[in-house]
Amino acid sequence: MHQIVMAKLRLLSLERKRTSNGAEKNIANKTHRSLMEFREKLLKFKFHIIFAFVFSLLTVALVTYSPGFLTVLSYFWPLFLSTALFLAAVFFFARTSDLPTSSTISSDGSGVKLAAEGILDYVVGGQEEETLLDSFTKLD
Question: What is the pLDDT of residues 104-129, one digit of tens each?
Fold first, then answer.
């Protein structure tokens, strides 16, 4: 009787090994299939991943190697100051200068537009060649 029980236990253990080996193979096949699907999805988003990686590297490099705000401010403070003073002067002269009266400027602002066009024509066109030649001939 003891031998029969031992034989049955051996058979059961062998069956468990066979089914577990089959189950392990089945799990391995499923894992392999899911890994292949994952690789296919990765290849589908290959450029997105590369772009995100490069962007993150550039961001880290920029934060790590860029100068601080106070360093930039201390380097460019003359430029910032001169720009601020120039803008203050423009606003000051715009407020204090005598503008033409409302009788000379129409309500649609065409007088201001004509004045601005005249100034722009002078700046863009510069002096005419004849006046330049006349001024050079007068020097002789």
Answer: 555 665 666 766 776 777 777 765 55
